[in-house]
Amino acid sequence: MIDNKEVWDVKQEVKVINFNVPPFTGKEIDYIRQCVEAQKICGDGPFTGKCNRWIEERTGVAKCLLTTSCTHATEMTALLADIKEGDEVIMPSYTFVSTADAFVLRGAKVVFVDIRPDTMNIDEKLIEAAVTEKTKAIVPVHYAGVACEMDAIMAIAKKHHLFVIEDAAQGVMAAYKGQALGSIGDFGCYSFHETKNYSMGEGGALLIREEKYIEDAEIFREKGTDRSKYYRGQIDKYTWVNYGSSYLPSDMNAAYLYAQLEMAEEINDARLKIWNTYYEGLKGLEEQGKIELPVVPENCTHNAHMFYIKTKDIEERTAFISFMKEKEIMTVFHYVPLHTAKAGRKFGRFHGEDVYTTKESERLVRLPLYYGLTEEQNRYIVDQVKAFYH
Q1: pLDDT in tens, 17-40
Q2: Pick from 211, 204, 185, 187: nearest CA to 257
Q3: Cα distance between residue 350 and residue 354, in whole Å
Q4: How many angstroms separate the CA atoms of 291 and 35, rounded?
Q5: Handedness of CA 18, 19, 23, 29 (dihedral sign)
Q6: Which domains does the chain have, with CATH numbers?
Q7: For residues 36 and 22, what is the distance between their CA atoms, to the nearest angstrom?
Q8: In sequence order, what DSSP letters do the residues of 304-369 get, joined into one string?
Q9: Which among 8, 151, 217, 235 is placed 20 to 30 Å from 175, CA to CA?
Q10: In 10 A of CB 299, how many CB atoms?
């Protein structure tokens, strides 16, 4: 426990501790300047290629395509899986709207399944009961960079001939049994939004496990044209060959991202140190039964995407957030379950009973965690959490 003077000094230094500060290494502006000076600022420039190769080498997938967002990467998977009106797609309700939107846009029905209370991930034991003759895909969401039980999910998918589309928006640098998240299912989707471990402001990536889907993915990404083949010199002109959209980010965005991918290990280590400081500092409160801390199963390598605690109930969480705000620390809750939303009721259905999804979502509150959070800030936050419960 730090004394009152130290607490005051920290508060004076940091003023307000934001929930998130986008990562910045110092090379981003230099790399963006290189794009401008080379007069190559549109999509699929040199830095886009560097980011794609970095992800391919890190994950082992057949192809990575940088996109304008993780939302658009997920929309591309719906095209690649040929999702059509009347199809059903299984996913957790505790996720961001983009996970569902990508398939709803194709006319599919979203089938929500309850989550596990330990990891906040989809409960793999409940998936098979939700499978019908209309089911086309399973979409596991790796919450907080902690992997879903992928062996079980892949076995169900193989048995019923279903696509597995990993929402690994929070999963860059995380793994399941040594295999990178996003590389296990048929397709994986990363996010490089400013709230993620590595950022390009707005951006994402589509990971493709099998080569047979690469050509179609390139066409969908290039407005339905075979422009990628033209740039590689495989054809003498490009034309409109299928439907598609413009899913290419500016190479300036890719340049911003690549500066962070070059330092991915350093950023990851810094985040893990913050996460571990929270965990060690707050485990006493968990032992006293006052809060619950995140669970990371033995076969999962997480990436410290977030650190959350679970309060007793929504009333206690509201009081906690207010208390921390008074201490100039911004803490936030997370998803409102999709099946409780107007659009969720319109475009989806919940299979089985909502035992944990709503209950656990109302207890969860996230603490500040970002590259650049200082050790002093980290300790100050721990002390204020303790102060609330003491």
Answers
A1: 999 999 999 999 999 999 999 998
A2: 204
A3: 8
A4: 48
A5: negative
A6: 4-22+264-389 (3.90.1150.10), 28-261 (3.40.640.10)
A7: 23
A8: ---EEEE-SSHHHHHHHHHHHHHTTB--B--PPPGGGSHHHHHHEEE-S--SSHHHHHTTEEEEP-
A9: 217
A10: 13
